[in-house]
Design a protein that fits this description.
The structure is a single chain. The protein is mainly α. Helices cover 80% and strands 0% of the residues. The chain has one domain. The protein contains four helices and no strands. Helix 1 packs antiparallel against helix 2, helix 2 packs antiparallel against helix 3 and helix 3 runs antiparallel to helix 4. The protein is elongated and about 55 Å long. The chain starts with a helix and ends in a 6-residue tail after the last helix. It comes from Massilia agri. This is Hpt domain-containing protein. Keywords: Two-component regulatory system.
């Protein structure tokens, strides 16, 4: 037995999932752009937007069946938060994090459902 409310819920969920999948290429492009713009000497502006975007991707990805993508986004977000808590972070630490962000973006562009 199926209820109209269930059908509406699953219809909205499918629509939201399609919307997430459709916006993923532009989201990944924006993450890459912010990574390229991040200045290790003054990271706050780009880092704040990166953190917010990674947080959103982490939650949405898991919800819509992109578990690995979501877990990777959450790990990047958490490491970014740690970096942002310090007054000074070595350029090499930023370079490592930015390299991981770049790998995440490329893997997400290639096959976001298999990212792990």
């Amino acid at each position: 037995m199926s209820f109209a409310a269930d059908q509406q819920f699953f219809s909205r969920l499918a629509s939201a999932s399609d919307s997430f999948a459709g916006s993923l290429p532009s989201t990944l492009a924006r993450l890459a752009q912010l990574g390229a713009e991040l200045d290790p000497a003054a990271p706050a502006l780009a880092a704040n937007e990166l953190q917010a975007m990674l947080h959103t991707v982490a939650g949405s990805a898991v919800t819509f069946g992109y578990r690995g993508l979501g877990q990777h986004a959450r790990a990047l977000e958490q490491r970014l938060r740690v970096l942002m808590t310090f007054d000074a972070v070595a350029h090499s630490d930023w370079a490592i994090w930015l390299g991981e962000l770049g790998q995440f973006v490329e893997a997400g562009r290639h096959d976001p459902r298999s990212l792990g």
